[in-house]
Description:
Structural class: mainly beta
InterPro entries: ATP_synth_asu-like_sf, Lumazine-bd, Lumazine-bd_dom, Riboflavin_synthase-like_b-brl
EC number: 2.5.1.9
Strand order of the largest sheet: 1-2-5-4-3-6
Order of helices and strands: EEEEEHEEEEEEHEH
Shape: globular
Number of domains: 2
Oligomer: single chain
Enzyme class: transferase
GO molecular function, one term: riboflavin synthase activity
Catalytic activity: 2 6,7-dimethyl-8-(1-D-ribityl)lumazine + H(+) = 5-amino-6-(D-ribitylamino)uracil + riboflavin
Amino acid sequence: MPQEAGRTREVFTGIVEELGEITAVENLGDACRFRLRGPVVTEGAKHGDSIAVNGVCLTVVDHEGDEFTADVMAETLDRSSLGALGVGSRVNLERPTAVGARLGGHIVQGHVDGTGEVLERKPSENWEIIKISLPADLSRYVVEKGSITVDGISLTVVDAGPDYFTVSLIPTTLALTTLGLKQPGAPVNLEVDVVAKYVERLLASGQGAGK
């Protein structure tokens, strides 16, 4: 997915800071402008800052009070679940990680690799298992006990199938993120571990050099 205009190469950790809300959507023709409420992420925010919205790195256009606006290109709307959002939709919000800060989750770029769909929810006494569909071109990057980002949330894969994976969610994640709200059929943004993609590229380069 291409970077939004003005976006810098900042990274996130997949540790959601707050559950925000879309308060307005403006159609700009080949793009749209979201206005989002998020008291935590807007503290000290300024024009040009990056904020991850459901795992998509967006650039702050304007900021007033506890709300900010961000423009989203048509391609991003088409290739992520942001195109399905509207006024009142709840979203996961995270600011980029600061240099020298703890990496609580894993390295997340805010570049969505594809979308999946919530297939099934299995509640338990102290956690909940969620099964999510997995696009065929991403399955090679997803392994058991590996990392994956779902709607901007850094999660550990429990089970990895050819066209699905499962994650186990603790009560805190269910209460403070969109995954506590999404039911079967709901779309989610997926970003695979960038380290896996680098390893794949390096191995391919090495095989080519050895021929």
